[in-house]
Design a protein that fits this description.
208 residues, alpha/beta
């Protein structure tokens, strides 16, 4: 019976936009070897999103947990990053259990707008004002990463920071190509040292 359950979990399918091995380009773990699993589907709808092609869930092929785990193992990364889209639109329990069983470290990138289903070693929470996280996810975040394009975004970031663990890393990330966002974050971090400036270094490098 246990073998049958394991086989069933390995055959679980998820819609995948892309998988690739690169370095983590943003957040606390910038520069670390990472195998990315980008899942399809998002109902958050950020106007500045750089992966809008990931929003439609049904336009992307399904891959099994077994295949995804095998490809992640072959890459031999420091960590596996599950991202999207909004990955928590899917139950990630089977995928994360399989990855952990293979000895892989798992990071999640999420807006927190859907229930947390899965086992993660690091959760990067990027809350959005127009579709806020579920309240119980704040305390589970290891990293709070807020995209800044205008002054109100910093106010939103501070409100979110009141709900996370005191040990969580706090990052303000300027919206890409937003000069105003860059200046706001730069000035704010200088006067609020508990926050860090985050950059999308993979874009400067021209890699995924």
């Amino acid at each position: 019976m246990a073998t049958a359950i394991l086989v069933e979990k390995q055959s679980t399918q998820l819609p995948v936009v892309e998988i690739f091995h690169s370095v983590q380009g943003e957040g606390f773990w910038t520069g670390s070897s990472a195998f990315f699993i980008r899942l399809a589907g998002c109902d958050v709808g950020c106007s500045w999103c750089d992966t809008k092609h990931s929003w439609p869930q049904n336009r992307h092929p399904l891959q099994t947990v077994s295949d995804l785990t095998a490809q992640a193992l072959a890459a031999r990364p420091f960590m596996v990053v599950i991202t999207g889209g909004e990955p928590l639109m899917h139950d990630l329990t089977d995928l994360t259990q399989a990855l952990h069983a293979s000895g892989l470290r798992i990071h999640l990138e999420t807006s927190g707008a859907h229930p947390l289903r899965g086992e993660f070693d690091w959760i990067s929470l990027s809350p959005k004002r127009f579709k806020p996280p579920l309240e119980n996810i704040y305390a589970q975040a290891n990293e709070l990463k807020v995209v800044v394009d205008k002054p109100a975004d910093v106010q939103w970031a501070e409100a979110a920071a009141q709900k996370i663990s005191p040990e969580a890393v706090k990052i303000l990330q300027p919206c890409w190509e937003s000069k105003l966002g860059e200046q706001i974050v730069f000035d704010y971090v200088l006067s609020h040292p508990e926050w860090r400036l985050g950059l999308q270094t993979h874009k400067f490098l021209g890699v995924r």
